[in-house]
Amino acid sequence: MKNILIVEGNLREENQSFSRAGIQTHTESLKDTLNHFSKEIKFDVVNPSSDKNIQKITDKLIIYDGLIWGGSSLNIYNNTPEIIKQIEFMKVCQKKVKNILAICWGMQVAVTAAGGEVKKAKNSHIGIANEIEINDIGLSNPLYKDKKKKFNSPAFNFDEVVKLPENGICLASNKINRIQSLYFETNRNKIWGLQYHPEITYEKMIQLIEFRKEKLINFRNVFKDDTEVDNHIEFIRKEIFKSDKENRMIEIKNWLRSLNAN
User: Under a CB-based contact definition with an 8 Å cutoff, are residues 259 and 65 in contact?
Assistant: First the structure.
């Protein structure tokens, strides 16, 4: 039995709005994906921004075989008290947890906590990232064992890593984000980061687009109108039929395998 800590990146209020709209929280998506590959997992969940008992988790971080930190609608450069709490908690985790998988927002928090830098991206991924390509270093990393060299993936991000931590290594890129995945070590602990979301289905990404439609048009300005949104959703629906579920999620499988190697 493996002990895994799931870190929820969204504020409690955002998760409540997800639930009211019938959308899984990111923690629920992570649990479903992890359980797909192994039933021998014991979960704890913590929300560094919203939980008041965070110290109880901090005191026992050393017991966890691994930590997986999911996505969020937050932007790290806003530097709010809630975001600062997450960065500080990540700094402690990087000292005490041997294996960390940080996804999207999680990767941005991990990079910031380790001295790297995240900025608003010139372009964004809305539900899907196309033609992510694993580089030569990435192909030899255990996270990408049996992964296709070039692939599409569910993704939803407006920000990107622009400076790696001191010993960080880029593993994959695409035309939108130069750093789509990375690896670094700190205090002899291993941190993998993914800018995309192998743990989230395209169906959920479509739900998120519909849920955020007004903001995507009027605030983010990534679509002109409802028609553009609908056309993009149709593009993603076509990807569902082309996608290989097992290969889409193989990074999670390989990360779990790394826990067994320790």
Answer: yes
